[in-house]
Task: structure prediction
Amino acid sequence: MSLQLNRNSFGDPANKGNVLSPTEAITLFQEWVLNPRLQLHMKQVAYLMKMWAAEREQEDVAGQWQWELAGLLHDADWDQWPDQHCKKIIGELEQRGVDPEIIRAIASHGPNHFGVEPVTRMDKMLYAFDELSGLVHAYALMRPGGYEGMELKGVKKRLKEKSFAANVSREEINDACTRAGVTLEELIEFIIPKQATVV
Ligand SMILES: [Fe+2]
Ligand SMILES: [Fe+2]
Result:
């Protein structure tokens, strides 16, 4: 099954600045994503994106919402239409006239799967947060205290264990960090305290 999108242009430049309202976004999210574990993953990535935009990219509130929206909806079609991931959500957002940057970020969140290269800061950070966020959460689930007291070195240890969260590609994580120009350590230290607050 190929998820290749076979295109490199997304949305209409005339829609620059167009977003879904929080209510529209949550409605779509709840209708499309029924699996609570996937919902949590998407909320975690959304929050990481928002906070990275705020703290590291100096995005204003409107910009932060764009980053958050890309995170919130990046896997929206994965639960019910896995063979159409992420073609379906991209088509939906294009139809709704959403800003091409948000659509493009979603389209490039897995360059090996969708064949779209991350270009912008938003693209690259979504790609970087996606898998690493999942690994950190898997680690929290196996720790008695969850996120409490979690340290960088523990996460790095788990990363080295090939059998731990084996579906999380270490290669993609390293590739994503390189592309984003962020060290693995910096990213993990950003993720732990942020993600601990998302329930
Ligand atoms: Fe995905
Ligand atoms: Fe994801």
In short: The radius of gyration is 16 Å. The pocket of fe (ii) ion (ligand 2) is lined by residues 41, 45, 74-75, 130 (CB under 6 Å).
